[in-house]
Amino acid sequence: MTQRSDQIRLGAFLMATGHHVAAWRHPGAKADAGADLEHYVAIARTAEDAGFDMVFLADSQGSMVDQEDPAASRFVSQVATFEPITLLSAIASRTSHIGLVATATTTYYEPYLLARLFASLDLLSGGRAGWNLVTSALRQEAQNFNLDHHPEPEARYARAEEFADVTKGLWQSWQDDAFPRDKASGVFFDPARIHPLNHRGAHFSVAGPLNVPRSTQGHPVVVQAGSSEPGRALAARTAEVIFTAHQTLESAQAFYADIKGRLPAFGRRAEDLRIMPGVFPVVGATEAEALEKYEELQSLILPEVALRFLASVFNRPELLEHPIDEPLPDWLEVDGRASRPALLLELARREGLTARELHLRVAGARGHWTIHGTAASIVDRLEAWFDGYGADGFNIMPPYLPGGLDDFVGHVVPELQRRGRFRKSYAGTTLREHLGLPYPTHPHHAIRAEAAE
Amino acid sequence: MTQRSDQIRLGAFLMATGHHVAAWRHPGAKADAGADLEHYVAIARTAEDAGFDMVFLADSQGSMVDQEDPAASRFVSQVATFEPITLLSAIASRTSHIGLVATATTTYYEPYLLARLFASLDLLSGGRAGWNLVTSALRQEAQNFNLDHHPEPEARYARAEEFADVTKGLWQSWQDDAFPRDKASGVFFDPARIHPLNHRGAHFSVAGPLNVPRSTQGHPVVVQAGSSEPGRALAARTAEVIFTAHQTLESAQAFYADIKGRLPAFGRRAEDLRIMPGVFPVVGATEAEALEKYEELQSLILPEVALRFLASVFNRPELLEHPIDEPLPDWLEVDGRASRPALLLELARREGLTARELHLRVAGARGHWTIHGTAASIVDRLEAWFDGYGADGFNIMPPYLPGGLDDFVGHVVPELQRRGRFRKSYAGTTLREHLGLPYPTHPHHAIRAEAAE
Q: Which residues bind FMN (chains A, B) (predicted)?
């Protein structure tokens, strides 16, 4: 392992009313936040004022409404909200430094469409965009794209591998100095500095060039969130940030070592990829106050929501009839390739949790690391994960908004800064600069790199 | 024809440095405007301060670079710029009233992706979005989407018909009052007020619902730009605004009468669809100054650019060898279905124009109506087209930016206002309100309409 910076990276993973499943019912939450641009602009600015590396938005190309039984979903707040690329574009023009990462699926986009949207977000934000590559998980998505069933993981990842290559190739279409724009001669671009892609592969034929010039960070940062084996393989080759879910330091360390260990095979260094587990933090002035805040949120969950959550995660409708205060049934098994259900079942079996207890344990963070405590005790744990090589930083998942982010920014960030582990102001202007990631020089003519460094 | 408002509608059709083919070489143009968000925000605000109904952006899913001979395109400024949906999203959060219309193709998008992007732009702008439906024209686009050749017009329009229906259906997924968001009971949405689409057609199977709620204008305004027969048929059934190109009032009147005459067959009224021809205006304090400004722009065109333009429009590379100061060759013919080449050839033959003269005539406006003069003489002509039922308004195509828009806003708009033909301030906040278009009530439960009107 090469020498590592001691600076912790922070993302703000924003969901309209917050990450807790009942966040929208919290007295401090704005129930219609998912349709309120000004709400998002305000919380992005809060994160920017605190020096966060980025805001991060999830996505799916379908609504979470249960198609057979819409009434079953009526307690769910994330059924309809903004599309993240447009939302981040709107936020881009009202912020100046913070990175802007949107999730988008390789399974239902075409690479030219997606490469363009992200390149444009990157250009208009002055080099602050990131693309969180996912292959989609909801059955509802398939049915919005001419399919009855979601493709199998192998097929999705085979497409994703080629999709990532095409997208990165399109982002190399124009060299950084391709546009002399010389009014006197009338020459707008230098034809020697274009690189059309002319890709012909199993899934895509894409000629290029992209019709968007490169941004000041070269191209968007590539983020990934899958922790399955094909997800890890793709991430080790192409990702620059990994967003991941771990309940324990041991699990995080094993993942961290595995991913970083795969990098040299692709000619990559450990510092070329940042691993950022999700953290769901509940901050109090005392440990007791933090616990009380956490339990207030938990008390807002309806029992029906808990059972529906488990039935959905494990894809077993029978769980709707399961007695909520008994352990999960013995017959429940999971497909080892789907990492989140496996993690939840293992947790429930290990600790003998009832259905209600399992749901309450993961309700807010959906399998991510949940911590409550004072700023000092939270920073102790973040430092332990960072210093123990379980993380390069964290994707912070505020329990509810804006209060949950305000608590973190008001108490945890200053404690991180006091200990010298987090920036007090931005040193650069691009997401790559914040994250300390290398500039993607052009493979054919690395002119900018030669001139600038 | 029913009683018509006497108010002229105005769109600002924005291209980075302006519409003239050599606009970027003008001393007053910012050559890198196509990569400068602040440039676009400033001109959108200029148009908003003047009370324009909307800004309008063109699009193609490919670069105008000649793939066989990139050097041949080196004088072209529109080879790489922002993607319009992301750009308008960024502009949305810095403006408050002006409509925001982006072009997007039904040939290479999937309807769920496109319906979502525009619904989200509509939501975050407070009901100001419009979608200009096109079926694409560039061969380069096909080659970015797994095809060797662009599909034939019949195939493109068959897909576009179904695409438009699916998109509008997805925009009806949620009733306006579908979200009680009741914290006490925990009910976020009312399952009786969702309308999944469950569409199964020749081109698309889309279950829905869309995962974006409706905006305050119901859904984006549907704009169309095709003037071919299948384009007219589709527009008469689905469009709410038509952007069109005419050189003469007679041509505009014939088009206007044809389109408005088709509406009753679809149960639509004349005022349900606004016809807005493009206008390329050069404004001067005197007629002589206007002509001088126009000729200054024309003088910036390189002869090679003129021949390449004609070779491209007519898809005949032999025109590159044609003597620029002779009339178009006798052998040149056009496919009657492609409306723009037919219009240009007819113009050249009618007036006996040389290749250079034809190009100079249409260079700036690419077949649209070019006028130069004082504010009063320009308004005379706009009024004549409006009062003669050739137009419900105009899509203004500034020759260069920002100067060409500043001239129009500073001189022509005040003259229109003085004559009582254009608003002095916005009466509403949505694009539909500006254009006087009906609110799209929900076909199943027109609750909002009943309650509000």
A: 59, 103, 157, 227-228
